[in-house]
Amino acid sequence: MHVAQPFQPNPRILEPYMYICMYVHAYVSIQKFNLFMVKNEKEMETKCDTKLLLVTANVGSLFEDPSRLQQIWLKEFLSKVSEIQPMFVGLHLQEVGGKTYEKSMEFVQEFIQSLCDSMTDYTFVRIYMDEDFKSAEHFTALGNMYFVHTDLQSLRVWNFLTHDWENNLNKTEDKHVYSGNIETIPTKDKSKFPQHFFPECKWSRKGFMRTRWEINGTAIDLVNIHLFHDASNLAACEEFPSVYCKTRRRALVHTLERFYLDDKNGTVPFFLFGDFNFRCDTEGVVKELTQNLTIHRVQSVKNENTKVHYRNITGNNVLTVGKKEFSHADHQLKFKEDWLKNFDRELEPLKDILIEYPITFVPSYPFEEDPEMPTDYMSTRCPSWCDRILMSPHVKDVLTEDWEQMNYQKRYNLIGEAVCMGDHKGYRFLPCAQLKFQSR
Predict the structure, then answer these.
(1) What is the pLDDT of residues 343-359, one digit of tens each?
(2) Nearest of 132, 72, 71 to residue 97 by alpha carbon
(3) Is the pLDDT of residue 31 over 50?
(4) What is the pLDDT, as a whole number, of residue 399?
(5) Can you tell me the distance from the alpha carbon of 23 to that of 254, in angstroms, rounded to the nearest whole number?
């Protein structure tokens, strides 16, 4: 197959994310949307469509309080599988094992076993758990779990070492759990972000893990990613984009660039699942909430507990902002209103190369981790849509429904809205994504 060489602008002239935008447009327009589906669009023949359930979930809380939270989480997830009856389930987890992985190993294995025991109709299983917490160079705490229904007609998985499809798959009973050190497993592409991407904090477990699947003739990449958090609300308030936002954008562009420059593996339509840690424009949110209020700064001797209070005319605190405090007088209602969506702006510079279903739900973070308070937000951060499912524009070409006519609320939403799923409200899901059947 002849592949034209993509246009490559001078990166010294353009900002990194602008370079990616231009590169992607040139590259995909030359390559069409998929090198591996068919050689000629005329060869395509629609036979049947494939229902997918694609999920992202930050599960750190589950392993820090497994006795109270893990069964609630599993029940909600499995009920959604039962309701939708998908042919292919992709579950993408961040912070597997929680903050103290070395103490939570047994709970991770119990979690995996519970899922496998419950998904009895899914006879082909691939699970990739990055558990080697002693490896500072590689550890990401990411987990990719895939369950394939026994009735799925055609399935292939990509080998990133041989740069080709693995064809000898036994869908009747083929279960592999890759855990511990998974660096040599060839059916995944995994990387931790370079240390110089962590200028404001220690080299933490942030990175991505990618798999590629051909499902009934349609090839897609499923990418799990975890980006950097905001270390301080006070620093995040200083400007937009904040220093943290810029670092997240840099890492995201780095990841996309790696995919589009990968000549050996080529490109296919991709989904990005993850805790992107996208935060609202905190500077803008504070301005919106503090109109006609007076500011009062309280500073400790060591400057470690500095807080800023915004008070009304009667002297009552309406908003308090500290390094790890963000508290409003009407905290549980104010941030569930539609006005906040106007400040969800981190994706704006990449809107030409990453698309997303419209958001019709409340912010996913930071929820209380108490089962008795399942819908309440903690007063630690400005509530934001940290957890997302993003897509390359050419994903539209492999979905059966017209993008403009989709029922977004049904397709892209929260699971477990009324129960405690941890500090992140469980996960997003794309419950009825119908992949077109492509004949080979």
Answers:
(1) 999 999 999 999 998 89
(2) 132
(3) no
(4) 79
(5) 13
Check whether the bond before 11 is cis (ω within 30° of 0): no
Residue 390 to residues 125, 167, 273, 396, 433, Cα–Cα distance (Å): 24, 29, 7, 12, 13
137: phi then psi, degrees, rounded to nearest 5: -75, -25
pTM of the model: 0.86
Q: Is a pLDDT exceeding 70 seen at residue 264?
A: yes
Report cis status (omega within 30 of 0) of the bond before 431: no
Q: Where are the domains of the chain?
A: 31-280+344-435, 282-330
CATH fold of 31-280+344-435: Deoxyribonuclease I; Chain A (3.60.10)
Q: Which of 125, 44, 109, 115 is nearest to 74 (CA)?
A: 115
Q: 3-state SS string over the chain?
A: CCCCCCCCCCCCCCCHHHHHHHHHHHHHHHHCCCCCCCCCHHHCCCCCCEEEEEEEEECHHHHHCHHHHHHHHHHHHHHHHHHHCCCEEEEEEECCCCCCHHHHHHHHHHHHHHHHHHCCCEEEEEEEECCCCCCCCCCCCCEEEEEEECCCCCEEEEECCCCEEECCCCCCCEEEEECCCCCCCCCCEEEECCHHHCCCCCCCCCEEEEEEEEECCEEEEEEEEECCCCCCHHHHCCCCCCHHHHHHHHHHHHHHHHHHCCCCCCCCCEEEEEECCCCCCHHHHHHHHCCCCEEEEECCCCCCCCEEEEECCCCCEEEEEECCEEEECCHHHHCCCHHHHHHCCCCHHHCCCCECCCCCCCCCECECCCCCCCCCECCCCCCECCEEEEECHHHHHHECCCHHHCCHHHHCEECCCCCCCCCCCCEEEEEEEEECCCCC
| Tokens 């890759």 -> residue | 178
Q: Which residue has the higher pLDDT, 195 or 159?
A: 159
Beta-carbon contacts of 412 under 8 Å, excluding residues fewer than 6 positions away, are: 356, 357, 358, 359, 360, 389, 428, 429, 430
Read off the pLDDT of residues 366-423 as tens digits, 9 standing for 90 and up: 999 999 999 999 999 999 999 999 999 999 888 766 656 566 667 788 888 888 888 8
Amino acid letter for position 295: I
